Amino acid sequence: MANTPHELHEEFPEKRQAISDLKSSDGHFARLFEEYHEVNRAIHRAETNVEPTDDLHMMELRKERMVLKDEIAKCLAEV
Question: Phi and psi dihedrals of 18, rounded to 5?
Answer without folding.
Answer: -60, -40
